[in-house]
Amino acid sequence: MKVVFHLFLQSATLGRKRAFLTIAAIAWGTVAILLLLSFGEGLKQQLGRNSRAMGENIGVMWMSETTKPWKGMNPGRPIRVTIDDIPVLASRLPELESLIGEAIQWRTNLTAGKKTVAGRVKGVNYPYGEARKQYPVAGGRFLSPLDEAERRRVIFLGNELAENLFGKDDPVGQTLLVANAPFTVVGVMQKKTQMGAYAGMDKDHSIIPISTWKALFGRPTVNNLVLRVRDGAKMKDAIARTREVVAAKYGFDPSDERALPTWDTVESQKVNQNVSVGIQMFLGIIGALTLLIGGVGVANIMYAVVKERTREIGVKMALGAKTGWITGPFVLEGLSYTLVGGVAGMLIASLLVLGMSFIPTDGNKVMEFLGTPKLSLPIGVATASILGVIGLLAGYFPARRAASIDPAATLRYE
Amino acid sequence: MSSRIEKHPPASGRPIIEMAGIRKVYDTGKVQVEALKGIDLRIEKGEFVAIVGPSGSGKSTLMNLVGCLDTPSGGDYFIGGEKVAGLTRDQLADVRNRRVGFVFQAFNLLPQISAFENVEMPLVFGGVPPKARRAKVAGLLERVGLGDRMDHKPTELSGGQMQRVAIARALAMDPDIVLADEPTGNLDTTSGTDIMGVFLDLWKQGSTLVVITHDLALARRASRIVEIRDGRIVSDRPAEQAA
Ligand SMILES: Nc1ncnc2c1ncn2[C@@H]1O[C@H](COP(=O)(O)OP(=O)(O)OP(=O)(O)O)[C@@H](O)[C@H]1O
Ligand SMILES: [Mg+2]
Fold it and tell me: Which ligand 1 atom is nearest residue B58's CA?
């Protein structure tokens, strides 16, 4: 080993320009793979966050018509769960974290001062706040159990609707006319990037207690139910159980899935996740190919270096150099290029990623969707080891070939 | 032919080189060239053997085999009593390092490193510690008259000086035998005579030498002349008897 180092340090290595190009190729490959994978990771995290923005472990069940006959009744009968039945149904479904009724009144006049907007007013049971991630901006709150019990005239606003109505003013505590009835604004939803929605985006809806809603609009039934479970894995069972309970109460075939069409968001999040894993793999493959090109570059240059120094190899062998003393310095040379290039690439990539994290995602639609790139340690380690292997092989094989020929032939080489 | 070798009195009786029926076939793919067609050769300690013969007769091929730079296609070869066939590549490297010193027509110094480092190289391979190396290299370069040129790169030296560095390098590990393939071939007459003088001095100081040369004047000053033609030894005699 001492001999190898002696020879490595002694052999005036590649021309400076060539060494620089090799290192640059490797650095470039490293930057490419790291950036691509960081973007993939950021995208994955952002997609996950966005797709969870509507709520986690929830299912949405709409009211429809029976499609199967039941106890002498023909199919085609509408099923409408009433607002008043929800507590009864909930008590029969202990496996649910919450069962929420959601009633919707479209295009209702909302008036704040002189400004009137046609908005969507939902009546919901209070656990909706948690289930559907209606997190209030500081200073406000979501609807409470008391609001619901006392049929209070309080309203919670989506952030864009609130801005439409109140501009820059703080809406909390202000009065809002809903279909000419005065309501007090208790909270505004925090801004969120929502991927996946039904009945419009949360940012422009408004929410009042379901009891108040029934009295205000005079309609006794819900548009849909929102089911929430503690454990996402139990979602399928929970949906079937809910359908059974509702079927028992309203008299239809519990196997009639189309009577209550359901969106299982746990299931669709899984699909989302697969998509982002797919995207990451795709980016990873592109990055790996880029790195491979860098590796081929190093291999190519090392091959040329060895070829150029064939005669020198012959001389050293004639003087008694063992095979390892010939290959060793070349391996070190290849390794040092990939090492320096790899480290440089990692530094550049880290700096770029760091710089990117200062770009605010707020208000930037692309970044809101893409998220900020995330550098991950395993990716860095994997890249480094791939580079190491490339450097090793690129130096070893050509030198090994040259060293395995009889020195007489190597010495004759011009 | 081997009977002829026996006729001439050995210089010391201790054989360094013993070859019997050595053949070498170059397989160039299309044609096979039989460069050596059965060589019997015995060289003893203290001899100065000049190898002569026309171009293409197989002199360099023989020299490469003697120096373990190439593998014979057939025959037996012992160097210092050690059978060469069957040695691993690294064992062969060791034999070259310890037993043989090479001087090439084209000098074959490494251009990027100094004269000192060139001479040091075999000592590095031989595992000699740095301190001992420095003393040895300095002594060798003094001996070939280049004590003041140690830090010069080969490109900063004349042809004759380069060949002196190469000779110093060949002597570094105190080899059993020094092999030189047309060492004056790339030199002008003056430097050539000069280098030949160096070889003669080495011989007088006890080295065993094998030198390929076209220079009959030099060959005559050797102790023995081996003449090769068409891959065979056609004459092997003490130099005094040479015409
Ligand atoms: N690597 C090789 N491949 C094929 N043939 C070779 C090779 N080396 C030598 N030969 C052939 O072997 C024969 C002997 O060559 P060699 O170099 O030993 O001659 P030489 O006596 O040293 O000649 P010169 O005085 O010109 O140096 C020649 O016919 C040559 O063409
Ligand atoms: Mg020759």
Answer: 18
CA-based nearest distance B103→chain A, Å: 10
**Count of residues in chain A:** 414
- B79/B61 Cα distance (integer angstroms): 17
Cβ neighbourhood burial of B23 (10 Å; 0-12, 13-18, 19+): middle
A interface test, pick of B26, B36, B94, B96 with most A CB neighbours within 10 Å = B96
Architecture of domain B4-242: 3-Layer(aba) Sandwich (3.40)
Residue numbers in chain B where pLDDT is lower than 70: 1-13, 241-243
8 A C-beta contact, residue A263 and residue A235: no
What lies within 8 Å, CB to CB, of A68 at 6+ separation is A75, A252, A253, A255, A256, A259
Write down the pLDDT at residue A260.
95
| Positive or negative torsion for Cα A191, A192, A194, A199 | negative
Cβ–Cβ < 8 Å for B181, B103:
yes
| pLDDT tens digits along A322-352 | 999 988 888 888 888 888 888 898 899 888 8
Encode pLDDT of A73-103 as tens digits: 999 999 999 999 999 999 999 999 999 999 9
Q: Where are the domains of chain A?
A: 2-52+269-411, 58-265
Place of tokens 């299912």: A59
- Nearest in space to A148 (alpha carbons), one of A131, A132, A128: A128
Identify which of A10, A12, A408 has the shortest CB distance to residue B69: A408
Q: Which two tokens stand for residue B103?
A: 């001087």
B205/chain A closest Cα distance in angstroms: 22
Q: Residue A368: which pLDDT band, with cuts at 50, 70 and 90?
A: low
Pairing of strands A175-178, A181-188: antiparallel
% of chain B residues with pLDDT over 70? 93
Residues of chain B positioned with their CB less than 8 A from the CB of A312: 110
Of residues A63 and A25, more confidence is placed in A63
- Looking from the CA of B189 toward its CB, the CA atoms found within 13 Å total 1
Predicted ipTM?
0.91
The 3-state DSSP class for residue A303 equals helix
How many helices (H) and strands (E) in chain B?
8, 10
